[in-house]
Structure formats: structure tokens, C-alpha cells
Amino acid sequence: MLLLEGLGPQVAEASARLDEARSSLDQARKVHDDVVGGLRADLESRQAERQSMIEGIDPKLLAVYDKVRRRSPVGAAALDGDVCTACHMKLTTPEVTEVRAAQIGRCPSCDVILVPEA
Ligand SMILES: [Zn+2]
Predict the structure, then answer these.
(1) Is 108 within the bounds of a domain?
(2) Which range of residues forms the domain containing residue 79?
(3) What pLDDT band is residue 9 in, cutting at 50, 70 and 90?
(4) For the chain, what is the domain count?
(5) Ligand 1 centroid, distance to 60 Cα (angstroms)
(6) Mean pLDDT, to the nearest integer, of 49-67?
(7) Are residues 104 and 78 in the same domain?
(8) Long-range pairs for 6-13 at CB < 8 Å and ≥24 separation?
(9) The model scores a pTM over 0.85
């Protein structure tokens, strides 16, 4: 008992540091919750925006686009003459013909969906 009486100031200091740590933790949790809440709201907004934009698009084309986008920052690009505007590689004449004839033409170099210019 005598030993514990001498520890009073140390216990008080430790208790104060514990209160400070709890306060910091509470502040960090609030910041975390605010950030996560903002990100969730942004995600929901973007999902709703995307949903309205994809209405009427062929689901098969959309599936290919989503598959390409998982691997690449670009999902679709224009075919400018015989050049893919995503990777700037020149396609051969048979490749251009194949892209133009395909329902969903893809770049043989970077694999994005190629949209031939009219
Ligand atoms: Zn390409």
C-alpha cells in the first residue's frame, strides 16, 4: 500500500496521457468517418450518373468496355485513319478492315475498343 501511495503523480500523468490519446483517437475517427462518408456519397452519385449514361448501350459492348477498363485507363478510342488514338500505333490495312467490320473492334496493340471515324 505504501508503494502505491508514492505512485500517485505517475498515475495521474498516465491518466492524463490516456485521456489525450482517447481524444486524439476520437478526432481521428471523426475525420475518418467524414472522409469515408464523403467518398461513399461521391461513389453513389457517380454510380447513379453512370447508370443514366449507359441506358440504351448494348450490354455486350458495355461488358467489353468494363473488361478493358479494368486493365487500362482507356476503354475506347477513335480509330483515326489507320492509327489507334489510345496507343498511337498504326494498324495494318487488314487490321483496319477487321476493326471496321467487327461489331466491337479492338486495337491489336493496346486492346481498347476502337471506334472508326465516320
Ligand atoms: Zn491501341
Answers:
(1) yes
(2) 59-116
(3) confident
(4) 2
(5) 20
(6) 94
(7) yes
(8) none
(9) no
Same domain, 50 and 21: yes
Q: Which residues pair with 79 in a beta bridge?
A: 84, 116
Give the count of beta carbons closer than 10 Å to the beta carbon of residue 84: 24
Measure 55 CA to ligand 1 centroid, in angstroms: 26
- What is the whole-number distance in angstroms between the Cα of residue 50 and the centre of ligand 1? 24
Domain identity same for 66 and 88: yes
State the chain's mean pLDDT as an integer.
94
Q: Are residues 49 and 72 in the same domain?
A: no
Residue 1 has what pLDDT?
56
18-39: pLDDT as tens digits: 999 999 999 999 999 999 999 9
- 112 burial level (CB within 10 Å; 0-12, 13-18, 19+): buried
C-alpha 53 to ligand 1 mean position (Å): 24
Confirm whether 38 is domain-assigned.
Answer: yes
